[in-house]
Write a structure and sequence with these properties.
mainly alpha, 3 helices, Phosphoglucan water dikinase chloroplastic-like protein, kinase activity, kinase, transferase
Length: about 45
């Protein structure tokens, strides 16, 4: 989902919205994994 969002996002603001949507919609242990991938993506 990160890769797809990165390819379709036209600007950095939209990319941040995609990251926010992914992290908000994940629960439990999957949220930690989503945060990890998000930090790698944003770095």
């Amino acid at each position: 989902k990160f890769v797809q969002g990165d390819q379709t996002a036209r600007n950095w603001w939209r990319k941040l919205e995609i990251v926010r949507d992914i992290v908000e919609n994940v629960q439990g242990e999957d949220r930690l994994e989503a945060l990890l991938y998000t930090s790698i993506y944003l770095k």
